[in-house]
Amino acid sequence: MTDSLRDLLRPELAAEFRRKPLGRHSPALQGLLVALRRQASGDYLLVAQRPGGPWLLARRKPGGPMAAPPEILDSPPLPSLEAAEWEVFRRRWRDLTGAEPPEDAPPPAENRA
C-alpha cells in the first residue's frame, strides 16, 4: 500500500461516507473512493432483487471476462441502497487494510419510499 493511499484511510472519511454514502462527497473522500476502487481485488456489484431493493452483493473476479456472470455473495439482502453502498465500502476497506473501517458514525437511514 502506498503512503498516499495510507494517508487517505482516515477514520473521519469512513465516518463521512457512512453518514452520506450517496451524493456529493468532500474532495478527500472522493479521492479515497477512487483509490479504493482502483485497489479492489475484484469488482463489487449491487444487484437489486426488484426496483428499489432489497440489494444483493455480488462480485466480478479480477481479470475475468466482462460477459461472465458475477458471483452473488453469501450475505443477507441489504434493505436500502445506502446500506448496500456502505457494505461495499466496508468490504473494500477491509480487503485493502485487513481491518474493519471505523464505525463511529450512525448507520445510513433506511431508504423508504
Describe the protein:
This protein is an alpha+beta fold and 113 residues long. It has one domain (3-97). Helix content is 40%, strand content 12%. It contains 4 helices and 3 strands; from the N terminus they run αααβββα. It has helices at 3-8, 11-19, 27-39, 81-97, and strands spanning 43-48, 55-60, 71-72. The protein has a 3-stranded antiparallel beta sheet with strand order 1-2-3, with helices on one face. Helix 3 (27-39) crosses helix 4 (81-97). The longest helix is centred in the last third of the chain and has 17 residues, at 81-97.
SSE topology sketch:
Blueprint: H1 3-8, H2 11-19, H3 27-39, E1 43-48, E2 55-60, E3 71-72, H4 81-97
Antiparallel strand pairs: 1-2, 2-3
Helix pairs in contact: 3-4
**Largest sheet report:** 3 strands, antiparallel
The average pLDDT is 83
- Strand runs, count: 3
Number of domains: 1
Termini separation comes to: 41 Å
Radius of gyration: 14 Å
Structural class based on helices, strands and sheet pairing:
alpha+beta
**What is the helix/strand order?**
HHHEEEH
What would you call the shape?
Answer: globular
- Percent in helix: 25-40%
Q: Tell me the strand percentage band.
A: 5-15%
How large is the count of helical segments?
Answer: 4
Strand order of the largest sheet: 1-2-3
**Low-pLDDT segments, ≥5 res:** none
Keywords for this entry:
single chain; 40% helix; 113 residues; 4 helices; three-stranded antiparallel sheet; alpha+beta
